[in-house]
Amino acid sequence: MQNETLIVEDLMLLLMDDESGAIAGAGTLYYTLGGAVLVELGLDGHITVDENDKGLNGLKVHAVPGNALSDPVLQTAHEKVADRVRGVQTLLIEIGTGLRETVLDRLVERGMLRRESKKTLGLFRSTSTTVADTRHKKALMEKVRAVLVYGEEPDARTAAVIGLLSASGTLPSLHRSIPWSGKVYTRAKELEQASWGAEAVNTAVMRTVAAVSVGTAVAVTVTN
Q: Which InterPro entries match (predicted)?
């Protein structure tokens, strides 16, 4: 495994509460994680998008031929893109589904997360995952805060992480480290809109929220 964390791993650390292990935006997490992997493949030149070919499922994504990638998460995603040309919305689901546990396992292996198993009432066994080593996460948070609060220019990876946080709607959950404000919202949205991957996540998340809202409204109407 590479020593450097992937964007998707950095994102997971930022989304996870240090004490409870709760993950912000859990309901649409697969879109966010899938988007993070696609963004990384794009930054590294392994995929491209056709800006002039946008269908119902978003921009069409193309794989760039080359040697196998050393990271299994990126290689698996690249193979899915290479299988056939599809819209980015479809790929978000295909790549992001099931990725949560893979990313958590990797972070446990790196020693950044801790997984503990315990019994409740002496009968029911449950497993919890919490932050173990906060050094990397704190460094990430400092980079994000420097951009959003102090106006520093981000490197490509930090810009990608911020864009994905904005797109997933989870940025306000970091308010204890990054006070939520109009300035923070505006800067994060700028970085989101500069990234086709982050924009795709935003569209997917909003579709899901809209569908859930409609379903809730129908349920309430039927109940009444």
A: GPP34-like, GPP34-like_sf
